[in-house]
Amino acid sequence: MSGIEIRNLWKEYGEQIVLENVSLTIAPRAFVALVGPSGCGKTTFLRMILGQESATRGEILLDGKLLPKEPGPDRGVVYQRYSVFPHMTVLGNVMAGPEMRSARILGRRFGAARRAIADEARAMLAEVGLAGSEDKYPAQLSGGMQQRLALAQALMMKPRVLLLDEPFGALDPGIRADIHALMRRLWNEIEMTVIMVTHDLREAFTLSTRIIAFERRRDRPEEQARYGATIAQDILIWPPRVAGRRTMYEIDLHSLRDDPTTMGQFAGTTRPTGDGHAQTYSALG
Ligand SMILES: Nc1ncnc2c1ncn2[C@@H]1O[C@H](COP(=O)(O)OP(=O)(O)OP(=O)(O)O)[C@@H](O)[C@H]1O
């Protein structure tokens, strides 16, 4: 399981309030898209879940336990660019994380352990469509291939939460469609919760189970220091998507009733009414 609970989270940098009182429950295996205007704190929010930034106030819990203060293998991340090591081969990049972990546990890497990691890395590269590129360096790959590599590298650590910061933002539309299909397959197959920052609403609707929009409700310059961004919209994708179940007919809608991913706890959520139609609640009313 990998449910995330965010309780009354605030982030301030000096005088500037970036995030204001964000509370959110994310169900295990949800795919949440995070949208909002530039500078509203999406990356900051992701970095707090990753453990690269600490909250000024509030808590983040993963499966009911407070998140450790530093990044760990339970949380993987892919950025728009520069997620991979340029001086390592494709295979080396994918092996690096597990090798470091096994070196820490065993003191050094034994031949058999290393071979097992290499086998797993090759299988992962095949999974993301990079079989045959094992000996290349990242600079020899296209942008789409580099992002596939970054995904493979993150997934090798078997994260419970995968954080994506505009991972497909720099790709051409055709390549982006291919990698969307890959991303959807990986989310269906692997037990993980995904949180993705994107500027592309179409991408958000294509991939996610739920869209969270951050917005600064008061945005006059003199108010910026006193008010941060918070959740302005919480939109359920309808018909619902559930990881591992590809069609609506495989989804037991009644079992979803207590699932915040699909039922949405906040104003602005689109809820199924039970008769197959969606009902949208006003965001601010
Ligand atoms: N380390 C930092 N020190 C001070 N201010 C910061 C720091 N990191 C971010 N900020 C500020 O916090 C605000 C939110 O930044 P953030 O990058 O999280 O926004 P964003 O919504 O991801 O923006 P974009 O969509 O443009 O990537 C910005 O005003 C930014 O300048």
Structure notes:
With 285 residues, this protein is of the alpha/beta class. The chain has a domain at 4-74 and 159-280: 3-Layer(aba) Sandwich (Rossmann fold). Helices cover 29% and strands 24% of the residues. The chain contains 7 helices and 12 strands. The protein has a 6-stranded mixed β-sheet, sandwiched between helices. Strands 2-1-4-5 form a 4-stranded antiparallel β-sheet, with helices on one face. Helix 5 links the parallel strand 7 and strand 8 (193-197). Helix 2 (90-106) runs antiparallel to helix 3 (111-127), helix 2 (90-106) runs parallel beside helix 4 (143-155) and helix 3 (111-127) crosses helix 4. The radius of gyration is 20 Å and the shape is globular. The two termini are 34 Å apart. Bound molecules: adenosine-5'-triphosphate. The site of adenosine-5'-triphosphate (ATP) has 10 residues, from helix 1.
Feature tags:
ABC transporter ATP-binding protein; alpha/beta; ATP hydrolysis activity; Rossmann fold; binds adenosine-5'-triphosphate; 12 strands; transport; ATP binding; 285 residues; 24% strand
